Amino acid sequence: VYDQDKNGVLDLDEFKKLWKTLISELDDETLERFFKVADNDGNGTISYVEYMEMASTIDEKLNETFEDNDN
């Protein structure tokens, strides 16, 4: 759905559209930093594997945060 040009990867604009639908409060600067971190190979796009690695890392950090707050 968010891979507008159907090339199998997300470019920066597609990535921003995706995240702004999920969390509308994120600004462009924050999303650009997220994008750079997720773009592991530095080719200017995010593959499915890169996206899933980023999502997994976010999930781990959220779990750690909630676990710390529960103690």
Main pleated-sheet profile: none
User: What shape does the CA trace take?
Assistant: globular
Distance between the termini: 40 Å
Structural class: mainly alpha
What's the average pLDDT? 91
CA-based gyration radius:
13 Å
Fraction of residues in H or I helices: 55-70%
Sequence stretches where pLDDT stays below 50 over 5 or more residues: none
- The count of strands amounts to 0
- H/E series, N to C? HHH
Beta-strand residue percentage? under 5%
Q: What is the number of helices?
A: 3
Description of the structure:
There is one protein chain. By secondary structure, the protein is mostly helical. Helices cover 63% and strands 0% of the residues. It is built from three helices and no strands. The protein has helices at 12-22, 28-38, 48-70. The longest helix has 23 residues, at 48-70. It is globular and about 45 Å long.
